[in-house]
Amino acid sequence: MTTEPTPEWLQLDPRTVAASTVVATGALAATAVPAGSGLLLGGVGLAWVLLWTIGGTILGAAATAVIETVRLAVTRYRVDPHRIERRVRFLSSSTTSLSTGRVRNVEISADLVQRRMGIATVRLASGETDGARLTLGALDREVAEDLRRHLLAERAATDTIELVRLDPGWVRYAPASVMTPLFGILGIGIVFQVADWFGAVPEMLEWIWGQIGELPIPVIAMGVLLLALVVGTVASVAVFVENWWNLRLDRHEDGSLELRRGLLVGRHTSFDGRRVRGVTLHEPPGFRLLGAARLDVVASGVGTGKDDDGKKKQSPALVPPSPRDVSAGAAETILGEPVPTVLRAHPPAARRRRLVRAVAVIVVVTVAALVPAVIWTWLWWVPVAALALSAVVAIWAALDNARGLGHEVTVGVVALRKGSLMRRTDILGREGILGWNIRRSPLQRRAGLATLVGTTAGGSGAFRLPDVGLGQAPELWRTAGPVWDHLAEPPG
What we know:
By secondary structure, the protein is of the alpha+beta class. The protein has helices at residues 15-41, 46-74, 112-117, 141-151, 179-197, 201-212, 217-244, 285-290, 324-335, 348-375, 381-404, 442-447, 473-477, and strands at residues 10-11, 75-79, 83-89, 93-99, 103-110, 119-126, 133-140, 160-165, 248-252, 257-261, 266-271, 276-282, 292-299, 317-323, 344-345, 406-409, 413-418, 424-429, 433-439, 449-456, 462-469. It contains 13 helices and 21 strands. A hairpin with a 5-residue loop joins strand 17 and strand 18. The longest helix has 29 residues, at 46-74.
């Protein structure tokens, strides 16, 4: 009886030291420009400014080179037919191990510097929702591709269908995201933060007020809003181009997905088709107005945020904001089932609950706006404007939310839709649904409604559908199998 030889421990690519140092130098230099400008405006001499900025950049770059050299020296990895391991030996020793048979998602990413140097970072994730993850940064590009092919060898297929390729015209949908005004506010906040570092906020506010101080306050407010939208639009377009340039989404014969995207940081991600549980269509108001949608995958090992170890999960993003037919068509091919276009509406009581909440919001906002008007009577218009604005927004959001609320059950999938500003339609394969949690608040009991939460081994693991009619609930919970038939009687 012979045993397989133990593979030797391998070193990461030495070029990662130079790549990380170049990136750090660029980031420090970009920070040094506004910092140096602020110091000069603050009256600091040119010699001292050059010393702090250039010296700081050199010192930071040297520190990065030292840290990366140490990391390179203490990190090793090895791959055998059954496991892939990464070992770090510094003051103590730690080993991260993944079964090659459990690797479901492989992402190869390379920033601009790494691409020029021919190296890439490899991120691996297992099939569990919060399962183990392993990062190798960085390997030779060819070695990284060979590793990806080795780990996905059992699932490789020659028959490939191209689902989506980027149309540059889709960039027009980027500003329609709900993140656009937030990007604008963040940009303005960064300007004030930098000014605060150098104690220049009072002077900046004095200069701004000198330019606009004679304008009516409503005009100033509209100007600030317009500025935030302009800054947000530029930022959202830049983020779209960086994340989605050179996009190509392929589907293999075995159902696995292969995604390539990115301008400065190129990403090559593979999703195991056996772990895909469904998809999510995102349609905020701006997208709906333009007939657009964004598509995410619901799969084991991917999601938003971080896992229990503090590591960032692999992104579920599949298709950027694009014509809805593009995202829906990709979803149908991935699921092998038509995407329901008309969903079953929820009872009128669901709409009443949303209108009641809207009225409560209007009352709270108006009462809060009365405070400055009581103290300064010349601000009498503030509660009036708050009442009008909150009424329009809250009532619209309540009615839009009620219109969007719905579900549908077909032979192969279950579609769950909810939300207004963050509207999403979760389309889950019936075979992947593990069960349903049924929740009823006292107010829902009086209204004859219930909240259903579907559980599946993918994405967040829980998909919530609020305010389902009791007569509609059995059709949903029976999608988890006959074991749920005992729930056919509505809960009391």
